[in-house]
Structures are given as C-alpha cells and as structure tokens.
Write a structure and sequence with these properties.
Length: 376
C-alpha cells in the first residue's frame, strides 16, 4: 500500500462519492426496514414494498477499503491507524448502551431483554467469534470489527515489504483464493455438514468470508491510480465476484443451500460502478452548490445513521404499529429517526471525540519522538 501522492487519489470530498455513500446507507436502512425487520420480528406487518437483498453493507466495506488506501499515505502509519480508531470507536462506545437501554426498557413484551453484561461483550466485539453466546445488541455492528482489523492490517503492512509491489499483489490474491478453497469445508454441498467449531470461530472471527470485499476496494484503488493494469484488476475483481457468489449461499428452511442472485448481481454491479467513479477526475463536479452541500452534510452523518438505525428502528416500528400506524409510515419513521439520531451522534460524539483524540496524538507523538532523539 504505497503512498497515494502519485496520481489521483480520490480523497477529496467530491459530490459523486458523497452521493454513493448516502445511497449505500439508504440501501442498508431500506433492507432492514422493509425486509429484515419483519423477518426477525414476524409480528411486524409485511411492507407494501420490500427490498429483500443484502447489498448496501457489503458495498460500504468496498468503499471503506478504497478510501483506506487513498488516505494511508497522508500521515505516518501510526497516525493513520489512530485517526481511524478515533473516528469509529467513540460513537460506537456511546451507541451500544443506547441500544441496550432501548431494548431493555422500551422493547415490547416478548422481545429480548439483554442483561447488562451484553454492553461489555458488544464493546469487546465478541459477536463475530461466537454470536450465540455474545449476540449483537444491534446486528448492524458486524461491520465495525472487520473495518478495524482491516485498518490495523493496512497500517502494519505499510511498514513492511509486503505493503507494496509484487508481494502485495500476491497477498491480495491469497486473501481471495484461500477462503475460496476453504469454502467447501464450511458450506458447500458435499462438504462437511458440521465443520469443526474452532474453524467456525476463526473464520467468523477474522471475517474470512468477507475478505474479498476489502480486496475489491483495494483493487479498485490500485487500478484508479494506475498502480495495476486493467487486465489484472479485472481478473482480481472477477474472482472477488465469484467469492461474493459463494458467500451468498445460505441454508433455507429445508436445509438446502440457496443464493440470492439479485444480491450477488447488485454487489458486483456496485463494484463496477465504484471502479468507474474512481477513474473520474472530479465525480459530481457539476452538481449545483446547494445540492453538493446537502450531499456533503448527509454523507458526513452516514456513519452515525448506520450505527443507530436498526435496533432503535425496530423498536420504534413495533411501538408505532401498536398504536395503529401502517407499515409505510413505520418504515419512514425508522428512516427519519435514524437521520435525526445519526446527526446528533455525529455532532455530539463522533466529531468532538475525533478532534480531541487527534489533538492528543499530535501533542504526544512529537514529544515522544523528541525524547527519543535526545536519548539517542
């Protein structure tokens, strides 16, 4: 992961990228509000419109990997890693107790009443390692540990010979191909019906079955900055598409593995769109200024919206249904509440905490480096 200073980096806040972020978050909220909510809570009235395909969250991971590459060379690896942690963790630490309080005291009768220890297990992000023992208070949190692991790996790799050149490309292929080769052990027809528990823990905990999404984002960045040729990028992205297809297989009520072809096609098409946008010099540059400002502000709260929308939204929809509100207004209320709470979380927690933590880094690191120089 070499410095992005040479060539276009795509790091500026262009309206095109803002629109993509907003669109992907809206896809996530729509999927949860119209499909997954009634699936997880069957007493919720079926929606008149249902978006049944898991697309948005997967593509958000692709975008996250792309921009991780684009920003890695701006500062030292340590400061880069600290900036990512400072952006993601404070809002998460605050929103976990909020989700717990919502379920515990506002959840309808018959819904889960999580014990207080689940706040700690969610803070520790143990859900990937054993979701039966350590359930997520909000299922949307699953992307956070994967991003933190990816950012940590990126920072470490950038300090080694494996962070650039041929070694790095070999590593990318391994990150896609190894999970593909291991997939029959877990779920393929004719594979082991019950894979070893240690294998499930390692694969789920480290997110092996999602690695191709990060590789896709990296491949797009390499191609957009002309660090790899189109043939290599197409080959790598094609294999990522195959990995997404296999990842999409899930057992149905009859135990037979099936895949959602629309979701797979949606993720693959989204990756293609992201690749094309990454090569545009100024995506969305002709957007009228008021629209660009609105897009920038909405994109700026997208992480907060993502964190607060699901569990709180499900409770809200059920409570509205109890007083006679129909399914369309329930879904609209879930979206509107997510926007308001996401804005509050961004303004009151995410941005102030990020600023304070970055100021602390910038005060501490120069002093530490100066002390080392004197000692030497």
């Amino acid at each position: 992961m070499t410095s992005p200073n040479a060539g276009r980096t795509g790091t500026r806040r262009e309206p095109g990228w803002d629109a993509l972020r907003i669109g992907l978050v809206l896809l996530v909220v729509t999927y949860h509000a119209t499909h997954l909510g009634p699936v997880l809570h069957p007493e919720l009235i079926d929606r008149r419109f249902s978006f049944d395909h898991q697309v948005g969250a997967s593509l958000l991971l692709v975008v996250s990997a792309y921009f991780a590459c684009a920003t890695l060379g701006r500062h030292s690896p340590g400061r880069y890693w600290w900036a990512r942690v400072a952006r993601l963790l404070p809002a998460f630490l605050v929103v976990v107790p909020v989700a717990w309080l919502t379920l515990r005291f506002l959840g309808p009768d018959g819904w889960a009443e999580p014990p207080a220890r689940e706040i700690v297990t969610n803070w520790l992000m143990l859900g990937h390692w054993d979701d039966a023992r350590f359930p997520w208070l909000d299922p949307a949190y699953w992307t956070l540990p994967l991003q933190l692991m990816a950012f940590t790996a990126a920072a470490v790799l950038s300090t080694t010979r494996w962070g650039a050149g041929r070694r790095f490309r070999m590593l990318l292929w391994a990150l896609v191909l190894v999970p593909l080769l291991l997939w029959p052990l877990r779920a393929a027809p004719g594979g082991l019906p019950d894979p070893p528990r240690w294998y499930e823990i390692v694969v789920d905990g480290l997110g092996f079955h999602r690695l191709h999404l990060f590789v896709a984002g990296i491949a797009i960045w390499l191609w957009s900055t002309r660090r790899t040729g189109p043939a290599h990028a197409v080959a790598l992205l094609t294999v990522c598409g195959v990995a997404q297809f296999l990842h999409g297989f899930a057992p149905g009520p009859d135990g037979v593995l099936r895949v959602d072809p629309v979701a797979v096609a949606g993720v693959c098409a989204g990756i293609a769109v992201l690749a094309l946008v990454s090569r545009l010099p100024n995506p969305g540059s002709r957007t009228p200024a008021p629209v660009a400002l609105a897009l920038r502000r909405l994109a700026g709260i997208s992480y907060g919206v993502y964190l607060v929308h699901q569990t709180i939204g499900y409770v809200l929809m059920r409570r509205l249904q109890d007083v006679g509100v129909g399914p369309t207004l329930q879904s609209a209320a879930m979206l509107g509440t997510a926007l308001v709470l996401g804005w509050l979380l961004t303004r009151l927690v995410e941005r102030p905490a990020h600023g304070a933590l970055m100021d602390a880094w910038d005060r501490f690191v120069p002093r530490r480096d100066a002390a080392r120089s004197v000692a030497a």
